[in-house]
Amino acid sequence: MYSFDSRVRYSEVDHNKVMTASTIINYFQDCSNFQSDSLGVGIEELTKRSRVWIMSSWQLVINRYPTIGEQITIGTWPYKYNGIYGYRNFILYDEKKEVAAVANSIWVLMDTNLNRPVKITDEDYQAYRNEPAYPMEYADRKIRVPKELTSLTPFTVMPSFIDVLNHVNNAQYIRMATDYVDENFQITQMRADYRKSALLGDIIYPKISKTNDCITIVLSDKEGQPYVTVAFYGTTV
Q1: What is the domain extent for residue 15?
Q2: Which of 46, 97, 111, 167 could disulfide-link 118, Cβ–Cβ 3.0 to 4.6 Å?
Q3: What residue stretches are annotated with the Acyl-ACP thioesterase-like C-terminal domain (predicted)?
Q4: What is the DSSP letter of 162?
């Protein structure tokens, strides 16, 4: 497992002084980038080969939310490759070295010249060392979307949403979706199913469905084609 230590910053917490789901995802994303860079297969090297890893799905399970100033450890490891897909776990330890959050993620290897997925080769994964998958209840990648959704106010993709790949960063979608979660809804699990990339200036059309234990947000284009579907599971407190 690759890991690094950090401390929960003022800029990473909400008004309750605890980390948010999108903050945790940002840490996990950074951790995988740090590992790739340390192994010599980071963004710069992938760019030379016209390759990029694109997020396909997240499953995040949150046991507790670390608080402002708390010492934390973030870890990650790949556990499987299959065709065009790479599978990777993440873990977040709190200052008591207890598991605060754990995640499963599925990635797709893309050829940036052809703009299509390509099969993973020895060259793509030989730098990594697979470890056993984390013992958790793994959910399906696809999220079942309720038939009845309520449309919300559309918004434009702003420059601050865009990452080094010139599209909306996967963690930004989580932050967008979290804005529609009721303040008294305690998120214990989050799933995200990414379908296509939103670019600068695109208009995103949000739709929502709520039950007692699940809030589903679909962020789509004008034609109703999803950029991402995000489902938050939890309880009202």
Answers
A1: 2-125
A2: 111
A3: 152-205
A4: B
